[in-house]
């Protein structure tokens, strides 16, 4: 029930019927990340997306896979900081392309992970979930185009 309440509060899932929220809650897995730990790495194929329960993450773009053991600026330019209730990693899960950024925990992060097949199944059961993804992605695109180069 706690997961359903959390999901209802997110931009991704807000407005979905309870049956869809319960279906997503059932397939989502809780994971914790320590400060500096990578949730996903630029250039790798993504299999999961993340809904942030607590904590903040940095989204960094280098233009290529970062070197092993890299941290901070060596992971690339900071393009966003995301926190509770926000999602990350959905692009690679949707288009089967390599990750476009590295996402690093800015402190302890608790997240719900949703595997790409589970996300696709949830979308087929509740097409309105796709509109939640569109809202998230459109918001990020608008923010990116509003930033000076």
Folded structure, characterized:
The protein has 149 residues and is an alpha+beta fold. It has one domain (2-146): Jelly Rolls (Sandwich). 35% of the residues lie in helices and 26% in strands. The chain contains 5 helices and 8 strands, in the order ααββββββαββαα. The protein has helices spanning 2-8, 18-27, 90-95, 116-125, 128-146, and strands spanning 29-33, 38-40, 48-54, 57-61, 77-82, 87-88, 102-105, 109-115. A 4-stranded antiparallel sheet has the order 1-8-3-6. A 4-stranded antiparallel sheet has the order 2-7-4-5, with no helix packed on it. α1 (2-8) crosses α2 and α2 runs antiparallel to α4. The longest helix has 19 residues, at 128-146. It is globular and about 45 Å long. The protein starts with a helix and ends with a helix. The relative contact order is 0.25. The model has no long low-confidence stretch (mean pLDDT 90).
Q: CATH class, anyone?
A: Mainly Beta
Write the CATH architecture name.
Sandwich
Structural class: alpha+beta
CATH superfamily: Jelly Rolls
Percent range of helical residues? 25-40%
The whole-angstrom Rg is 15 Å
